[in-house]
Amino acid sequence: QVQLVESGGGLVQAGGSLRLSCAASGFTFSDWPMNWYRQPPGKERELVAIIRSAGTFTAYIDSVKGRFVISRDNAENTVALQMNSLKPEDTAVYYCNVRINGRDYWGQGTQVTVSS
């Protein structure tokens, strides 16, 4: 079965950095685009970054452009989100996601808290 396990969250001061990682299993990882979502407190979940299966195309929401970098290692079945220059508004639970044949799969989420 598809499994996604996130790690790397934590508490950081504004301006700091964190690197999130997601370990995937149960599907052919290199065949599918991967996504990072986040859900801030009291708000809806939003798509933060995407990376195509070969890793040659990435896209980001405007609020993280220039600060976050999504990457993947198809040999290790992992996808990462490097987050730099963090702001308090980046505080959220971050989720790894893959959509396979129209069905969404999610990790358990990892909390990122940015203090001002």
Describe the structure.
The protein has 116 residues and is an all-beta fold. It is 0% helix and 54% strand. It is built from no helices and eleven strands. The chain has strands at residues 3-7, 10-13, 18-25, 34-39, 46-51, 58-60, 68-73, 78-83, 92-100, 103-106, 110-115. The strands form two sheets. Strands 2, 4, 5, 6, 9, 10 and 11 form a seven-stranded mixed beta sheet that branches. A four-stranded antiparallel beta sheet has the order 1-3-8-7, with no helix packed on it. The chain starts with a strand and ends with a strand. The mean pLDDT is 97.
Quick gist of this model?
This protein is mainly beta and 116 residues long. The protein is built from no helices and 11 strands.
Question: What is the tally of beta strands?
Answer: 11
The largest pleated sheet is described as: 7 strands, mixed
Distance N to C terminus:
40 Å
Shape label:
globular
Radius of gyration over alpha carbons?
Answer: 13 Å
What portion of residues is helical?
Answer: under 10%
Structural class assignment: mainly beta
Low-pLDDT ranges: none
**Annotation field: number of helices:** 0
SSE string, helix = H, strand = E?
EEEEEEEEEEE
Oligomer: single chain
Strand portion: over 45%
Report the average pLDDT across residues.
97
Q: What descriptive keywords fit this protein?
A:
single chain; 116 residues; mainly beta; seven-stranded mixed beta sheet; four-stranded antiparallel beta sheet
